[in-house]
Amino acid sequence: MSKKISAVIVNYNNKKDIVELLSALIEMKDTVQEIIVVDDCSTDNGPELIRRLFPSVLLLTTSTNSGPGSARNIGIRQAKSKLVLCLDSDMEIQAKDIERLVSHSVKNTNYQFYIPRIVFSSNRKLIQHEDCPFHYLGFSLRCSNYGKNIQDCDSTARAIDTFQSGCFLFVRRPNHTVRPFDENYFYGFEDLDFSFQNTIAGNRAILIPTAIACHKNTPTQGLSFKNKGKYPTRRLFYIVRNKWIFVLKNYPITTLVLILPLELMLDAGTALYSTLYTNDKFLVLKSYASLMRAMPNVLSRRRNRCSYQLNSPAALIKNKPMPLPQVLEKQTLLSSLLPYLNKLLFAYGKYILRLK
Q1: Cα(299)–Cα(294) distance, rounded to whole angstroms?
Q2: Angstrom distance (rounded) from CA 316 to CA 302
Q3: More confident call, 332 vs 311
Q4: Are 251 and 294 in contact (CB under 8 A)?
Q5: Are 160 and 206 in contact (CB under 8 A)?
Q6: How confident is the model at residue 327 (pLDDT cuts 50, 70, 90)?
Q7: Given CB 3.0 to 4.6 Å as the disulfide criterion, which of 99, 101, 178, 349 pairs with 169?
Q8: Is 183 in contact with 74 (CB distance < 8 Å)?
Q9: CA distance 198 to 203
């Protein structure tokens, strides 16, 4: 391969997976020009392990835990190659799959982002992520082929609007400035917002289904649930807060006014859930307080969006059913109410999309 990549990996308290990923990438000398690890203030001696086992890897560390978006921005700024492969530490990808992404970047030069098909580690024939559509209320949805066997799905490359950021290749091209990750989010929504911002800025993404990456889905303590136990309180906090950051930053005023009653209704439901099933009765109010502190920055970014926007944000808004996370499907009341909620949201969504 003539074109080599810079691999940028974000790590936080995941020394087992980062060692396995680096061991694989180190062997890809014909594909990988440099490897950059941005460790987001880990406390599991991962950085010391990386320095000892992989001296050729450029290790950057943050002084505070700032979230994956901030860490990715640091790594991307440091990368030397025009081809940058961004990876989470719990991803697996083989050299042949990276080469397929790079090959498409040469053949399909009208795109800036090249996205692999991501499969589950528990069953590598089943699809976890491809595209990343999102609901008009600001939530990301499961991809259109979620849970399907890769052999039953079309393998033709196709354009997509939004994508997950666990594994993607992007190309620095003349006259196309890749928008950075918004560090306001800290956790969650930062990848949806990243692809959203780049799509409206005219930076296009293409899914390459023949390139396969595997997501181990290693849980982050206090934020991930991996289908066990209660829904983490801290995760709920960021969902409420970041949903509002996303819609306030990106949506047209008319759409914001129209979705306001439904957003408040969902927050009331979250407040009820947190009261009944968590130890934090004031979770939603705390999310609102954090949102208020972030508002000056959010509004500044909303104004700044006009300077690079080429495509309408409204064109990306979808009206599709929202699934429950599997851990919440065990709540009988929530599972029984979801079909009725989705019918209400779908009917209202048709009205909103006519007026957007």
Answers
A1: 9
A2: 17
A3: 311
A4: no
A5: yes
A6: very low
A7: 101
A8: no
A9: 5
